[in-house]
Specification:
Elements: E1 2-8, E2 12-19, E3 24-25, E4 30-33, H1 40-56, E5 70-74, E6 78-79, E7 82-83, H2 98-106, E8 110-114, H3 115-126, E9 135-141, E10 145-151, E11 154-156, E12 165-166, E13 169-170, H4 172-175, H5 177-182, H6 187-205, E14 209-213, H7 220-223, E15 234-237, H8 244-256
Parallel strand pairs: 1-5, 5-8, 9-14, 14-15
Antiparallel strand pairs: 1-2, 2-3, 2-4, 6-7, 9-10, 10-11, 12-13
Helix pairs in contact: 1-2, 3-8
This protein binds beta-D-glucopyranose (BGC).
Beta-D-glucopyranose binds next to helix 3.
């Protein structure tokens, strides 16, 4: 089952064709810079162009990609296909009927969901949280901090643990991967901040496992050994790295048209 996945991030928009049964990209992953300002008009244009390009690049066996469903992430709370928050994207997105709008633009079914929820869905099915029962949190460490909460593999959509309060502000302003770069923190300094944040998260939801994703997960050896977190909580790097959002988005789209089952994912974003 081949579906197009798109991942809208704070710095880049990425897309590929995904084999959702295997959880792998079957085309090259194409990337464009996120337009600035990242208004709905500007971002939708980029998504449209990327979907066309990845569809055209699909292998012959993939079938006609010009009508294939599209799953698209956004770094926001999404309910009923409508974007509700905009922490690291233009405020113009708030209230945007993203699924309907992209569906019209691309002339096919489009499913829109939170970026971290998408990454989490992929990690639970194919990656570092596969087969783990109990409470699992998948975090994406990037421009902000995204979260996906699972109980026995079932998603609780739209959690916003990056906005838990730490030092008087959203925790992501203290511990996101972007903060390490912006404030030129050493790996040890950043690991200290991340430990403090993870401690807080453990206090709030007591997960059995925390999966750390986002681009920085590729450099896990730099900071994972430096983390100090309750030893009863397993902290592991994500397995799908920068493909997780795309894979999860495609899975959500396939679920929405009835081709696969994603426990806990609903098109309207409700639990
Ligand atoms: C947003 C989340 C998003 C996360 C990662 C946060 O600022 O509020 O919805 O998942 O950034 O992009």
């Amino acid at each position: 089952v081949d579906v197009i996945g798109v991942d809208i991030g704070g710095s880049g928009v990425k897309a590929a064709v995904v084999d959702v049964a295997a959880g792998v990209l079957i085309t090259e992953r194409l990337r464009e810079s996120t337009p600035r300002p990242a208004t709905p008009d500007a971002v939708c244009d980029v998504v449209g162009a990327l979907v066309e390009r990845v569809g055209a690049g699909a292998p012959a066996g993939a079938g006609d990609m010009s009508r294939s469903p599209v799953g698209c992430t956004i770094p926001s709370v999404v309910t009923d296909g409508v974007v509700r928050t905009a922490a690291n994207i233009d405020d113009g997105w708030i209230g945007a009927r993203a699924a309907a709008r992209l569906g019209e633009l691309l002339d096919r079914p489009v499913t829109v969901l939170n970026d971290a929820d998408a990454a989490g869905i992929a990690e639970v099915r194919f990656g570092a949280a596969r087969g783990v029962d109990g409470t699992v949190v998948v975090l994406t460490l990037g421009t902000g901090i995204g979260s996906a909460l699972f109980r026995d593999g079932v998603l609780v959509p739209n959690t916003e643990f990056g906005h838990a309060q730490l030092h008087g502000d959203s925790a992501e302003r203290w511990a996101a991967a972007s903060v390490r770069k912006a404030q030129e923190l050493s790996w040890a300094e950043w690991a200290g901040r991340l430990s403090e944040y993870l401690d807080h998260l453990v206090l709030l939801v007591r997960p059995r496992r925390i999966v750390l994703g986002g681009g920085v997960s590729r450099r896990a050896e730099k900071f994972l050994p430096l983390l100090e977190v309750d030893p009863d909580v397993e902290v592991v790097p994500a397995a799908l790295a920068n493909a997780a959002g795309i894979v999860g988005a495609a899975m959500a789209a396939a679920e929405a048209v009835g081709r696969i089952d994603v426990p806990g994912f609903t098109v309207d974003g409700s639990p």
